[in-house]
Amino acid sequence: MIAVPFSLVGSFWLLYWLDYNLSIAVWVGIIALAGLDAETGVVMLLYLDLAFEKWKGEGRLISSAALKEAIHFGAVKRVSPKIMTACVILAGLVPIMFSHGAGSDVMKRIAAPMVGGVVTSTLLELIVYPAIYMLWRRRIVSTGREPQSGNFPSR
Questions:
Q1: What gap in Å lies between CA 114 and CA 119, rounded to an integer?
Q2: What pLDDT is recorded for position 17?
Q3: How far is CA 118 from CA 10, 11, 26, 109, in A?
Q4: CATH number of the domain at 3-143, please?
Q5: How many CB atoms lie under 10 A from the CB of residue 18?
Q6: Cβ contacts of 65 within 8 Å, gap of 6 or more
Q7: What global pTM score does this model have?
Q8: DSSP codes of every residue in the chain
Q9: Helix (H, G, I), strand (E, B) or coil at 73
Q10: What residue segments make up the domains of the chain, in order of their start?
Q11: Res 64: pLDDT
């Protein structure tokens, strides 16, 4: 869920820049953006987890440098799909932002939060998300074991 605030930053910036008020159409765009971004955030987390588990399973996860290498490996595999997703979304929504005619005023307000959110989400998810993941997983590498939480078994 940490990916959702990344997209909301760009969404609200573009809404402010375009001087759009919050309306039902804007909220529809924000909800669509939140769903999209939650999904892409989960996929990024999956790639990072797979790389982490691969390094851990091979016994290569012995230092912070190895952790950084594992996270880099997982994040780099996600760059191309994330950029392609953002480009396709922008290719579909940017023409709506410049449209004129019947219904365009409502469609612009649906598209605006998505356009702004996709741009910042792409940048922040590829840069900040792996850094946060590294801070989270650094404890496991330094102690050599995963923290226990409640009655759930560790992985």
A1: 9
A2: 94
A3: 7, 8, 15, 15
A4: 1.20.1640.10
A5: 13
A6: none
A7: 0.78
A8: -THHHHHHHHHHHHHHHHTPPP-HHHHHHHHHHHHHHHHHHHHHHHHHHHHHHHHHHTT---SHHHHHHHHHHHHHHHHHHHHHHHHHHHHHHHHHHT--STTHHHHHHHHHHHHHHHHHHHHHHHHHHHHHHHHHHHHHHHHSSPPP-TTPPP-
A9: helix
A10: 3-143
A11: 83
Q: Which helix (H) or strand (E) holds 15?
A: helix 3-18
Written as six digits, the tokens of 82 are 């994330």
Residue in the structure block whose two tokens are 């649906």:
110
Residue 55: other Cβ atoms inside 10 A: 20
Say how far residue 21 (Cα) sits from the centre of its chain: 25
Residue 1 amino acid letter? M
For 136, the token pair is 């989270």
Residue 152: predicted pLDDT: 47
What is the C-alpha R_g of the chain? 19
Q: Which long-range contacts (CB under 8 A, 24 or more apart) does 55-63 make?
A: 61/141, 62/141, 63/141
pLDDT by position in tens, the chain (length 155): 777 888 899 999 999 999 999 899 999 999 999 998 888 888 889 999 999 999 888 888 788 888 889 999 999 988 898 899 999 999 999 999 898 888 888 999 999 999 999 999 988 888 888 998 898 888 776 666 655 555 545 55
